Amino acid sequence: MPNRSVLEYSLGFEVYNFELDKVFREIAGRRARRVLIQLPDGMKVHALELAREIESKCGVEVIVSADPCYGGCDVALDEARRLSVDLIIHFGHTPFLKVEESPPVIYIPAFSELPVAGVVEKAVMLLRPHRVVGLVSTVQHVHKLGEAKRILEDRGFKVVIGGRCGRVAFDGQVLGCDVCAALSVMGDVDVFLVIAGGDFHALGVALSTGKPVVVADPYRGEARDISKLLKRTLSLRWSCIAKARDAEVFGVVVGVKPGQAMIEAALKARKLILSYGKRCYLIAAREFSPEVLYPFEDVDVFVIAACPRIAVDDAHRFRKPVITIGELRLALEGFEGVSGLPIPTILGWS
Ligand code: SF4
User: Fold this and answer.
1) Structure confidence by residue, pLDDT tens digits, 222-240
2) How far does residue 259's CA lie from ligand 1's centre (Å)?
3) Are 192 and 136 in contact (CB under 8 A)?
4) Predicted-complex ipTM score
5) Which residues cross the membrane (predicted)?
6) Which residue among 14, 42, 53, 116 is least packed, with the fewest CB closer than 10 Å?
7) Rounded distance, CA 320 to CA 250, Å?
8) What distance in angstroms lies between residue 72's CA and the mean position of ligand 1's atoms?
9) Ligand 1 pocket: which of 41, 67, 70 to mutate (most atoms <8 Å of CB)?
């Protein structure tokens, strides 16, 4: 591995392992002729290079999906069928869907080649005075968890890595909406260290476990505590929940992406809203943005029956309050007598 600076990595040099040999084998083995490739936005700069490489090695037609792709919940099955694609190569995530995929999907996690030792060392100061550390990461860094564990143990910490569970594929892996690897060990740890780019996954761990969380971010080459972000997020959540309590007209917005089409949960939410004598509209959306919801002027509060992180992370962007399905119950059924923060409710899917 050449010795590269963080700046070079941030410019995209050899950051990810796209496992092209595996991709070539799968394409040949399945006799695919037209392939759709999907990457999360942060990896899309590599899309054309990947398309070129796959086309020249496999002699197949490659179509690059330009649409945003946020997770394994977001596989372009409809688009692939419409374009008569016979194989999807989905980079950057692990399998999430609990439905039969047609056309078939090959998941390439795209493990990051960025070193983590430096940022884990930087996290040590922030992790003290705690003694037992729960260690998790996004899929891009799960292969480095063993190394991170050894570093922390050498610094005197006891380290616990949660096993594979829920919708994840590896021990210690977390998603924005599924942190069961952290939940499964939260009773045994004082603090969590999350190895990830950005604060998105760390916030999910903090919201779900209520434990202090430190991020070791190999992309920025820094470690940071996210307590201020957590405080801001919770205060906004409470404000949205309080507004929902007094609202009269609700819009339950159901996602249409394969892993976000929570129609049953949306219908249950609607029934609950109607039972309180309030009005409710069902709305469907692929992408959630202020512009998409802007025309629905009559709606006081939107309930997101899709990715729960839309409400949690993007609430400040919307003109009207947006809440998760779990928060709807809290708003309607009341939170008097709730002691502390009903944190798991916020990310609750149903
Ligand atoms: S539902 Fe949201 S948080 Fe979960 S995998 Fe999809 S985009 Fe990520």
Assistant:
1) 999 999 999 999 999 999 9
2) 8
3) yes
4) 0.99
5) none
6) 14
7) 11
8) 7
9) 70
